[in-house]
Specification:
66 residues, 9% strand
Length: 66
């Protein structure tokens, strides 16, 4: 399945807050809203996984309705 990777490096995988300031450097991610901190690549990967789960849930809901 395709997951749009746009802004995943700036989006918090915990609260969903997106801000350029969440990623002060290449390796660091610290959410300016909830304070969640993680390696930037790990956070982006978790964000992509959450988006994928959401896409899958929507596609399965559509299949169930048909």
């Amino acid at each position: 399945m395709h997951v749009d990777p746009a802004y995943t490096s700036q989006e918090c995988c915990e609260c969903g807050h997106t801000d350029r300031k969440n990623r002060p450097d290449q390796a660091t991610f610290t959410c300016t809203s909830c304070g969640f901190a993680e390696h930037a690549d790990v956070n982006a990967g978790r964000t992509i996984a959450k988006r994928g789960a959401a896409v899958r849930a929507v596609s399965h809901a559509a299949d169930d309705a048909a």
